[in-house]
Write a structure and sequence with these properties.
- By secondary structure, the protein is mostly helical.
- It contains four helices and no strands.
- It starts with 23 loop residues before the first helix and ends in a 5-residue tail after the last helix.
- The relative contact order is 0.14.
Length: 81
């Protein structure tokens, strides 16, 4: 997935030219961060560590019950199924 450029500053408001930085853990978890609006990215960039932990826990639980064929479709673009 495409990540926004690295920046040392705090997340800026939407419309300042660059999307807000979100925690790297969201990319690593496979969340489709690249599909979100700048406003949604701003919300994610302001998550507390506890909120981030809850979000990642929910994502991992959803992944555990995801149908196998759906996972293949996402990885192979549906070419095999």
């Amino acid at each position: 997935m495409t990540r926004p450029p690295e920046s040392g500053g705090a997340p800026g408001p939407p419309g300042d030219g660059e999307p807000p930085l979100v925690p790297e853990a969201l990319y690593e978890a496979g969340l489709p961060v690249h599909l979100l609006s700048d406003e949604q990215l701003l919300v994610l960039s302001r998550l507390t560590p506890e909120e981030l932990g809850v979000l990642l826990d929910i994502k991992s639980r959803l992944d555990e019950v995801e149908p196998e064929v759906q996972a293949h479709g996402e990885i192979a673009g549906g070419a095999l199924f």
